[in-house]
Protein 1
Amino acid sequence: MTSSVYIALDAMGGDHAPEMVIEGTEIARSQHPDARFLLFGDENRIAPYLARFRRLAEVCEIRHTEQSIAADEKPSQALRRGQESSMRLAVDAVKEGFAGVVVSAGNTGALMAISKFVLKTQPSIDRPAMVSFFPTRKGRTAVLDLGANVECSAGNLVQFAVMGAAFARIELGIDRPTVGLLNVGVEELKGNDTVRSAGEALRDVDFGFEFAGFIEGNDICEGTVDVVATDGFTGNAVLKTLEGGSSMFVDFMRQAFQSGIPSKLGYLLARPALRRMRARIDPRAYNGAVFVGLNGISVKSHGGTDGAGYANAIGVAIDLVRGRFTERIQADLEKSYVIPQEPADEAPQAAVS
Amino acid sequence: MTSSVYIALDAMGGDHAPEMVIEGTEIARSQHPDARFLLFGDENRIAPYLARFRRLAEVCEIRHTEQSIAADEKPSQALRRGQESSMRLAVDAVKEGFAGVVVSAGNTGALMAISKFVLKTQPSIDRPAMVSFFPTRKGRTAVLDLGANVECSAGNLVQFAVMGAAFARIELGIDRPTVGLLNVGVEELKGNDTVRSAGEALRDVDFGFEFAGFIEGNDICEGTVDVVATDGFTGNAVLKTLEGGSSMFVDFMRQAFQSGIPSKLGYLLARPALRRMRARIDPRAYNGAVFVGLNGISVKSHGGTDGAGYANAIGVAIDLVRGRFTERIQADLEKSYVIPQEPADEAPQAAVS
C-alpha cells in the first residue's frame, strides 16, 4: 500500500474560490484515495461549503488565514504584505515538510515570487521555469519556459530541457522522452547564438533523454517531441497565441453551427463526436502549470478554471510527488551537467519560413 | 484611368510551378485588368501552358531563363550560383525599373538573400523584415518580423512598427492603424530591456499610427490591434505554432465528422456553414508575405499554395505598388524617427501568464 500524499491548497486563489477549489478537491479525492489536503484560507467560508462533502471533509484539514493575495497584486507587494496569506502559508507548508506540493489558482506572479522566495532554487539549477502540457495530434507535449524568465542563456535552456524531461518522464510515463529546442529552422546553423550553443551542449551530453535537435513552432501541435524547451519570452508568446487561436477557432465553429436550421440540426447529429473532439483540446485537461527548479513543487492552476480543471492540476501535483520529481532533476543534472561551449564560427542564419 | 502595374514573377518557384503560377496569374488578371506580368522561367514549360489562357497571354511576357533555384538550396549558394536564375532575374527586373514588384513561391531564404542583395535596404531602415496577415476574430492583423532577424534591437522593433503600419494602412485601408508590441504582459514594466525600450520610443513619438502599447499572444487572434511588432525569432515561432495548431484543429474536426453515420449526416447539413467558417481561416486568403524595408517590394508566396492562394499574393503585391509602399515608409520615418532611450531603472519583470 502506498503512503498518503499531503497537498497544501491555497483555498482562496482563483476566480471562484473557495467553492471551485473545494469542488475540484472532491473530484481529486475520488481519483486519489490516498491524498490528504491542507486547505489554507478563510474558515468561515470554507467550512460550511466543505461540510456538504462528507467524505472529502474526512481527508481535509482547514488552516485558517485572515489574509489572501488579490489577483492584481504586484509580486513584490504579495511577498512583503502577504506573509499571513493563504498562498504564502500553503507554500510555507511545503517548505516545512507538512505537504509534498502546493496548488494555487491565484495570482501567478505572486505564486512564482513566493515559491521562489520560500522554497529557493534547487542546487545545480540557475533559473526555475514554468512548464505545462500543450495538446498535440499524438497526445501531449510539455513546453517550458512559459514565462518565468524573459531572458535566457544557453545554460538556462539546457537546464530547462533536463527539467522538462524529468516532468515528461513522470507525467507521461516515458523512460527516455524526446526533447526538442524551439528554433526558426531545424538545421544546426539556424537561430541565434543562445539556441545554437544550447543545441551543441545537448548534442554532446547524454542527460537521460533523446535530444531531437531543433524543432519549429508547427512541431509543437504535431507532437514531434515529448518536451519543447525555449526561453520564457517565446514560450509565453507561443502559449498565449495558441490559446487565443483555439478560442477563436471554437467560436467560429459555434457561429457556423448557429447559422440556420440545417446547421443547427447538423450540430445535433454530430454533437457527440464534436464533444469528443473538444475534449482533445479542452484547456481543463491541460490545467496545471508547474513551477520547476525549486526545492519543492509548486503547481499553478488557471484562475478561471472549474472543479474538473482544478482536479487535473491536483492530479499533476500528486504524480510529481509520487515520482520524486525534485530528486529526479537533481540526479539527472549531477550525472551529466556540462557548461555549454561557445558556438562554431559560422554566421547566424535567419529563418526560412 | 490608372496606369498599368508591372509584376515580375518567378515562374519556376513553388511546388507546382510553373503551372500553379500561371493559374494564379490568370485569376489575378481577371481581378486586376491593369496588371501586366513578366514571367521569368523556362519558356519551353511556360509557353505551352500559358497558351491555354488566351487573354492572360496578352498581358504576359515570358523572359526565358535556363536556371532556377532549388527549394533546398542554401541562400549563400543561391546568391553565388543563381545569377541567371528565374528568381534572380525577376528581382533584377524590380531593381532595373521594369517591374514595380516581384512575386515568388520559391525558396524563402534565397528570396530574402537575393532581394536584400539586389534591392538593398532602404535609407533609414537598419533591418528588413518579413510581414504577413494572420486571421483574427475581427478580420486580419499584420505581424512582423516573421523570421528575417533572429536578434533584434529596440530600434529594429520601432522600425518594424513603422513598416507594419505602412503595410496595414495600404492593405487594410486604415488611415491611422493601431500597433501593439508583443510582450509577456501589458504593463509597462513587463518584458526584457529591448521591448521596454522600444515601447518607450513608440510612446514618445507620433509615427502616424496609434501605439496601443504592449499586447500578449492571445491578442493576435483577438484582433486587438491592426499590427503586431515583434522580433523575428518570436514572430516565426508564433506563426508556425498557430499554423500547426490550426491544421491540428481542422483535422480533429474532420475526424469528428467521420466518426459514424449521424456525424457524417450532420456534416452534410452543416457543410455550407462550415465551409464559410473554414474560409475565415483559409491559409490561401492570407498568402503573400512581404519582405519590407528594401528599395523595392518583394512578395513571398507559400510554396505549396494553389492558384487561388498565388493570386492573393499577387493582389497584395499590386496593392503595395499602387499604395507607393516604399515611399510611404520613408516619409513616415523621416518625419518622426527618434533613437530609443535607455529604459528606466526598474528591474525586468517576468510574465504572469
Protein 2
Amino acid sequence: MDAEQTAKAARAASAGAALAGTGQKNAALRLMAERLAANRTAVLDANAADLAAAKEAGQPPHLIERLRFGEKKIESRIRCLRKIEALPDPVGQVFRSDRRPNGLEATRVRVPLGVILMIYEARPHVTVNAGAFCLKSGNAAILRGGSEARQCNALLGALWREALRENGLCEDAIQVVSGSHEEVDRLLRQAAYIDLVIPRGGKGLIQAVKDKSAIPVIKHFEGVCHVYVDDGADISTAIRIAIDSKCLMPAVCNAMETLLVAESMADHLPAIVEAFRAHGVAVRGCEATRAAVPGVEPATEDDWRTEYLDMIVSVRVVADAGAAIAHINTYGSHHTESIVTDSESRARRFVREVDSAVVLVNGSTMFCDGESLGMGAEIGISTDKLHARGLMGLEELMSYKHVVWGSGQVMGEWGA
Amino acid sequence: MDAEQTAKAARAASAGAALAGTGQKNAALRLMAERLAANRTAVLDANAADLAAAKEAGQPPHLIERLRFGEKKIESRIRCLRKIEALPDPVGQVFRSDRRPNGLEATRVRVPLGVILMIYEARPHVTVNAGAFCLKSGNAAILRGGSEARQCNALLGALWREALRENGLCEDAIQVVSGSHEEVDRLLRQAAYIDLVIPRGGKGLIQAVKDKSAIPVIKHFEGVCHVYVDDGADISTAIRIAIDSKCLMPAVCNAMETLLVAESMADHLPAIVEAFRAHGVAVRGCEATRAAVPGVEPATEDDWRTEYLDMIVSVRVVADAGAAIAHINTYGSHHTESIVTDSESRARRFVREVDSAVVLVNGSTMFCDGESLGMGAEIGISTDKLHARGLMGLEELMSYKHVVWGSGQVMGEWGA
C-alpha cells in the first residue's frame, strides 16, 4: 500500500459513491452477501491460516478469540448485510425544512462525509460491517484491519471489489489495506483526502491514532458502565437488570462493570451477591458490601476504573443518587449507565447529571445497541461528544448541506 | 494567563453552566446588555486606546477596520444579546423520541459540549457574541481575542464576569484571556479540559490552530462563493441576485466572488457587466467575457481562487450547468453558491453535485445568514463537514445524550 495513492483513490471514488443510486448500492450489498455465502470455505480457510500464524507468533488468547471468524460469525455478517440493505438510504434525506417569511424554503439535506478510514485490531467481521455502512451511506472507505487478520481481510477485500465492480461502482470505494505501521501513520496525515478516522480496538491503539492523526478522529473507547440501585427500587427488577447488564454478553463494551447500591438498600446486598454468584459472576466489594456478605473479595480503587469484560463485578454502597452520580462521573468512562428507581425526580436528576453517552432508567445496559434503540444497526459506539455520541449508525456517518429554494429573493433594496 | 489553570477553571465552571436554569442564563445576558449600554464610554475609550496603539504599531488598514468597535457596533451587540436571550434554551431539548416494540422510549436530548475555546483576530464584538452563545448553550467559554484588542476585550471580560456573578453563575464560565502565543499553544494542548476549538480569522491563523491543536477544531475558512446564471434564466432576476450577492456586504465571507454564465446566456454579458459597473464593481473576465464586453480586465487562474472581500468580481463563461459545477468544486472553498435557473432538473443537479455548505436556488448568497435561515443568529460559518456545516447557531454548540426510559426491560431470558 502507498498511503497517498490509497487516499487519493478513495477521494476520487467518493464522488461517485455519493451520487450512487439506492438500488445500485443495495445490489452491491446483496451481491456481497451472496459472495460471502458462496466463498464460505475459502473465508474459513483464510481465517484458519491467520489463526495458525497468530498462535505460532504467540499472540495472547483474547486476540486469537477476536480473530476467529467461524461459520456463525459469517452467517451473522450475511444477516447484517441484508439488514443494512433494508435500511433507508440516508443520502439526500431532507431532515429539516423551514419556510421563511420571505418565501425562502430553508432545508437541510444529508450528504456523505466523504472518505472514512477505519483502523481496527483483528476482527475480520468489521471488514464486512464497516464496508457495508460506508457503502450504504455514500462514503468511500479505507479499511485497515490488524495484520493478524491479513489473509482473511484480503479475501474479504477482493469480494468487496467484485460486489462493487459488478454493480457499476468504483472498486476503490471500499479499499481493504494492510501495510506497515509507517504507512498507517502516513495515511493519518492525508487530511486533504480523508475526512474522518474511526479507530476501534484497545486504548493504546486509539490513543496512538488520536495522537498521530491530522484528520478528525471519533474515538471508540472502553466502557466502564454502571447500574445504580436507588433507594426504594423494586429489588427483583434491580437484580434482573443487574444480571442482564453483567451476564448476557460480558465481553461487550456496554456490559456493566460496577453495581452501585444506595445505603438504604444495603439489606438486599446478600440477595444481590447471591444472584451474581448463581450466574457465575465473581464479586468484588467495598467495605460495606464485604461487611454485609461473607466471602466477597475487596475491591480496590483500581477496580472502580476497570473494564473487566469478564464475569467479574465490583459492588459499592453509596449514600444516595447524588453520590452514585459523583462516582459515575469520576470513575466511569462516559459510556452507558442505568438507574433502577421508582422516583421520577431522581430518575430525572440521574439522566440530567450523569455525563454519559447513553443513560437508561429502569432498563438493562444491554440496550445500548443500534437495533434496540431503533437505528437498525450500529458501526460502533462513540465515546466522543462532537458529531456523534454513543451509537453510530448510518446517519452518524453523514454530514449535511443547507439547501435553500427561492424564487428570486434578494436581501437589499435595488430599485427597478 | 496560565493555560492549564485557565482550562481547568473552565472545565470546573462547565458543570454548573450545563445545569444553569434558562431564567438565570437569560438574566445574565440581559445584565450584560445593560452593562454594555451603561459602560459605552469606557468601551469606546478602551477601543480608542487599542486603535491608537495599533496605528502606532503600523498595523494594516483592514486590521484597524476590524478592530474598530464604535457606537453602532455596540448597539448591534446589545441587540444581539437581546436576540440570543429570546432564543429557546437548547439545553435539555428532546429532539428525537422513538417508542420501541418492547416499550422502551429511546430519546435524544441536547447537552452542552463542555468547554469551547474561541481564538480570533481583533474584532471585539466576537467577545460579546461568542460569550453570549456559549452562555445560552450551557457551555463554558475561553475567549482569546487578538492582542491588538487587548484593552477593549479586558473591559468586556470584566463586564461578563459581573453579569455572571450577579446572577449566581461561576465567573469562570466566560474567561476572556490574553496571553502570549506560547500560552495559546499550551491552551491548544489542554484536550483533557477543552472540548472544541473554533478559530476565526485569516487562513494563516486557522491553519496554525489546526496544526497545533490536540483538541477537535471546527474551521471557519474563507468564502470563494459563486452565482451561476443558467441557460434560459430570467436575466433581470439573475442580475438582481448577482448585484445583491456582490454589493450588499462585499466584505463578508458569503459575498459572491465569481459569476459563472452559461454560454447560451453570453448575449447578456454586456448588461451584466454594465450593472456591476453601475454599482461600482470592477470586473475581471475570462476570454469570452472580454470578447463580449470592451474594457474588462483579464481574470487569471489566481482570480478564480481569490476571496476579494471587495468591490471586484470575476466573470467566467462556462459551457453549461455541469461545467459550472466542475468550476465551483475545483476553485471554490465549499462555502455558499447559488444557481439562477428556470429548470427544475438542473436546479436539483446543482444542489446535489455542488459540494458546498450552503447551496441556493434563485436566491442571493447573502441569505447564508442565521437570521435569514431561521436559526436566530449565528456564531460563525463552518467550512468543515464534521459536527456542523455552514451556519453555526446554538444547536451546533451542543452534543446530545441518548436517554432511554424503561420499566424494567432486560434483553435476555432469566426465568423467575
